[in-house]
Amino acid sequence: MPLTIGVPREIGGTEKRVALVPEIVNKFVKLGVKVLIEKGAGEGALIPDGAYANAEIVDTDALYARSDALLVVGPPDSGMLERVREGAVLVGFMAPHLEPDRMHAMVARKLTSFSMELVPRISRAQSMDALSSQAAVAGYKAVLIAAQTSGKFFPMLTTAAGTVRPSKLLVIGAGVAGLQALATARRLGAITVGYDVRPETKEQVESLGAKFLDLAVEAKGEGGYARELTEDEKKKQQEKLAEHLSGMNVVITTAAVPGRPAPRIITREMVEGMPAGAVIVDIAAEGGGNCELTRPGESIVHHEVVVVGPVNLPSQLPMDASDMYARNLYNLFSPMIAEGEFAPDFEDEIVAGSVLTHAGEIKHGPTRDKVGSTSS
Q: Quick check: 91 and 69 in contact, CB under 8 A?
């Protein structure tokens, strides 16, 4: 029997993305599979049901009863896991480091799940890297939030009333989100500065026309992420960073590692030393924030400095974010389909690296160590 792929409406009221867009549905259909779309699944991304010409639009009950594989954006909740067919395939962001009960439920249902967070960061998997694609959206949107929140122009303006000086903007963390933030801020005309504890990012920052801030603290880690700083390094970093923050109008913080709390980089005292009207947009808010004052999902004012803690930024640009994510999903999942049937090669590095649960077991070592060696 050909594989039937289902795309449900995302759970929760804030998620506007959808796992598949019509163009990618068409690509799956050409592989010999059937695609079911739950009614209204694309509404948040402004994709009407009628746009899915090569998919069947079904109600919730039919979607879960008939789908061999479910493609999602956000992690499944208990309600979804109760409805999905036993032994089905689940692909999406799984947040494997959170909620052990979710892992237990997936094991109990004998689900074969693939976590987009676990896709190996190797050259062959770049087109599948949803963390990077969605981080690019977040970096772009963060700068727009900063520009809207700030009481200053970003670019220099020469007017009949005199010259307006450009805003000075610092991005902390030169990963995908940080580099996109630097590029976007540069396009808006701000003076841009980038900082990262990984010395190899200096060239990338400068290639975007930004100045690289060297605080003489290096912490190169594994997998493209920074290692955790020692207490002495943190103190040195904060002392030197405080001097530069005092002259910044905007700060975008992006330092985060999946599965770990966001490193605390900006203290209350550092915020109090910033100029009145300055803005901090903390992309790492969902992980606790890079700023001590960050409150996830809120904006606060402290000593005339605005601290914004946005959550799920990619969902605020749902059209392009969905399109990029759907392509990541297709590039990961389509090689596991042969003649219309699900046929993964678990010896393949990408498949083996991204599988989270299979055959009643947790396959991802770090998750298994945290949750326990539960098997059904």
A: yes
Query: Is 225 a residue of the active site?
Result: yes
- In contact, 364 and 355? CB cutoff 8 Å: yes
Residue 369 known to be catalytic: no
Instruction: Catalytic residue, from 59, 101, 124, 126: name it.
Output: 126
Tell me if residue 148 is catalytic.
no
Q: How confident is the model at residue 373 (pLDDT cuts 50, 70, 90)?
A: low
Query: Three-state secondary structure along 185-237?
Result: HHHCCCEEEEECCCHHHHHHHHHCCCEECCCCCCCECCCCCECCCCHHHHHHH
Indicate yes or no: pTM above 0.85. yes
Span 299-340, pLDDT tens digits: 999 999 999 999 999 999 999 999 999 999 999 999 999 999
Q: Which of 121, 186, 264, 295 is catalytic?
A: 121
Asked about 126 being catalytic, the answer comes back as yes
295 is catalytic: no
